[in-house]
Design brief:
mainly alpha; about 400 residues; globular; Serine Threonine Protein Phosphatase 5, Tetratricopeptide repeat; 21 helices
Amino acid sequence: MSRQELAQEVNAYLYRKYKLGLNLDETDIGKLERGENRWPREKRREAFRIILRSTTDAELGFYPTRRSRSGGAAALRDTSNTAMPGVDLVRQALIDALREGAMAEASLEDWELTVVRYGEATRTRPPRVLLDDIRTDFVDLTRAIHRHRSASALRRLSRTAAQMSGLMTLTLCKLDHRSAFRQWASVARLAANESGDPVTQSWILAQEAYGHFYSGDLAEAIDVAKQAQDVVGSTQCVGAALAAALEARAYAVTGQARETRSALGRAENNLSALEGDALLSSAFGYNEAQLRFHEGNAYTYLGDLPRALKAQERALELCQPGDYTDWAMTQLDRAVCLATSGGTNEAMRAATEMLRTLGEDQRRGIITLRGHAIFNSFTEPQKKLPASREFYELLMLTTESKAVLIP
């Protein structure tokens, strides 16, 4: 729904139900999205909730006004703990802008540098914090797309929009917000297709494949990972490497050893061809530390402990300081291997200590999800061990969903 259509629907609803003659237009909607207008009163909020099918004000996504951000009565309160305010309307506004085909020429290099910085930040910044930062810049990016019309800038700005959407997809995946992840994955595909760049399309598809994996949709994860590799053909790039590694992990969960090893081989071959910025610790890079984590995870699922432990050891050696997600996930895989070989108490003590080194925002999402999956895979005697109970209780401090789909 465009801003103009939304304004018309709100006006009609308010007149039909309350005989209010409010004449909102698309400019007013834009100001609400950017926090330049006061947050609407109750009857108007009701209209937005009904039309946008939102159950709470927080889901509507309008920013508080600048005056109210310091805590005034008009401020929009994010009473949920999902860090989701503004995400859906920003997504819809970007779709509208892309479909209009209006592309900006100015500040393209600035936007491309912004994307690079966000790519690096994904390795160290908690996803809840990153989500809010990306969302804020998306407002400005979408305004730029609406405001300027230049065919010469189309591909560059579409690529930027695709990469920003892919970063949003990745961040929502890390937070385990599955519905929002799928919506943004669709937007990222749209923007990547507009860019006409197969390498960007491959990277976008790889991010989507990871989201399907962590949602437990293994067949879809494998299918999208294959698409990410097929779209670039023989070109070796970050997206293809990421996708091959993810494909291996998904095969491993289902016990397909031969397919797992084949996909890992493709990931290794892609990595060997990467150079320069493609090897940086970033969402847009892929290096040996990441591959060893993925390899160790795959062999952990297959139950091949010697190969798993070797890959984990190498991953931990290479992991950059502050790159907490891969480090934590590798430590959890290591705990699985130790528990499998009979050292459940030792494994759970180490895993609990690892989790305690992370902040609550860092643990939230897929790290906690993986911890629950490990605990749920234990036998009843293993679950009753004191170290296991302590591990479980720590997980519950950041648990937002009881759904655990990957064993």
